[in-house]
Amino acid sequence: MEKPVIILGAKGIAHPALEIFNSNQVIVYGFLDEDASLHGTEINNIPVLGHTEDEGFLKLIGKKTEAFVAVDDSKYRKFLVDMLLENRKMQPVNAIHQRAYVSTDATLGHGNFINANVTIGAGSEIGSHCIFHTGAIIDHQVKIQDFVQIGAGSIINAEVTIEEGAFIGSGVTIVAGVTIGKGARVGAGSVVIASVGKNETVFGNPAAKMK
Q1: Measuring CA to CA, how many Å separate 62 from each of 66, 84, 90?
Q2: CA contacts within 13 A on the Cβ side of 1
Q3: Which of 40, 64, 93 is the last residue in one of the domains?
């Protein structure tokens, strides 16, 4: 990556995103965040320059810099991604840690956060703007749609489908072949042995629907 990166968001995954770009010798120009109390502060010597909707900085994106959206909340993440597409006509770059393994046979969209020791197996199809926390394992021929978040240490077995906006907590195991529906949530440490419906929340071993 030849251009430096502006990171939208200065909380949550923003600090590890900076580490990822550093690990790949990519210069980070600065952060933007909606929280005015962070403006003028620094994260590991990189300044928080201003607001995520500050045109003075946004106009640099696409011309002089790339962008990465480091926001955990999927709704606000989607808002910022749509803003970049509409106003700057560009997609955020992927942030892939040097110690992650992505199969040469896997496909990736745009703007994904892939932290250290994540494995993405052969034939897997990853959408855009997903978050893969440290040590998550995505086995072969898994299909993950946009804006999905996978917690640290979770194991997604072969031929699982995870639909848009689903949230998988830390330490979850999802057995082969099941589908996690759009907007569904799987609690930390759960073992999922059956498909989960749209917007359902499940938890436990085996995972059961929360009432």
Answers
A1: 6, 9, 6
A2: 24
A3: 93
